[in-house]
Amino acid sequence: MTGRARTSPSTRRGRTSPRGAPGGPPAGALDIDQLLADRTTEIIVCCGSGGVGKTTTAAALALRAAEQGRNVCVLTIDPARRLAQAMGLTELDNTPRPVKDVGLDGGTLDAMMLDMKRTFDEVVEAHATPEKAQQILANPFYVALSSSFAGTQEYMAMEKLGQLHGQATSFIQDSGEKVTKAWDLIVVDTPPSRSALDFLDAPDRLASMLDGRFIKLLLAPTKGPARILSAGFGIVTSALNKVLGAQVLTDMQTFVAAFDTLFGGFRQRAEGTYALLQARETAFVVVAAPEPAAMREASYFVERLAGEQMPLAGLVVNRVHQNGADGLSGADAESAGRKLAQGDESDRMTADLLAIHAERMRVAARESRLKRSFSAAHPGVPTASVAALAGDVHDLDGLREIGQLLAGQSQPVS
Asked: What is the CA angle 140-142-146, rounded to 5?
């Protein structure tokens, strides 16, 4: 980022709590229950590459917190629909929906999926006059921008996070009843791959687009002394008309002129949300799988968060394979299997089992090396390992089991 949505280093230091850090003394295990029980933790951001169980981790953390008495909203901007299915909801959309059979200790859980265009529409409707809002919403260039412009999803995720945090949010339930609710914990599931941290850059990217020279050029003929540029601008627009088409350029000019009055508010809110991500109330959880590419991405996330002065809680390594029979090494299993492979049917079946055990031991050893390598490079980052389950998570009981594994309370049989 170039600086607009950022704060000065001195201001950052005054409010940032470096829960975990890439360097420093060994940090040990990540205490998930302590993180969830800490009432000063108001936002947990789960980030990581695709396919590592990040959505499931976010949902499990949210459910565990709710069942420990907190009022939680989990926001996913991952396009996958697994979260809705696991929570017993027919769908997720831009409206928080209550999850049933949760909160025996007084907590509640609501879940939602970011609809970036609807969120953009809500921002326009909330901060413009009805006439101006209608003009913007009907503009073809705005429709394209709010639906597909690179960075819009991440920017709207920040807008939605800002809406949900620290204030009562009103929404209409399926029954038609209007509900006003405030949550004391928001769990955010970010997009997959390195774009998971693009929301840190999104405010400046969108700001640069809307505040750049080209946009100012589009506005120039309509603003005061800049009218003297009209003759030269006419030559430019004539050329652009041939490339873009006259209607496209007109739509862009109309949109920018209407949107210009709202832009300062966008920037101000982005700065506020960015500061919120740096604050002590926020905790980032990096999620990875015990695979070389995923662990490299985890290192990237950790280093990027440290560079941005974001408070890191720790690393969760999902789908870790455990050792089988600890008394039998992989080498011994392979040696015994080779001898039994030439025997009768019963011996061959035993040899097959020994081969499976040997392979599992090799996988466990490789994963252990990857985790040790990460810890050596980032000794100050607490880590939690979640053992691989025999099947996929598809309901609340599965999420509860993941929550127990995150807290180190049980180990599955796989």
From this structure: 125
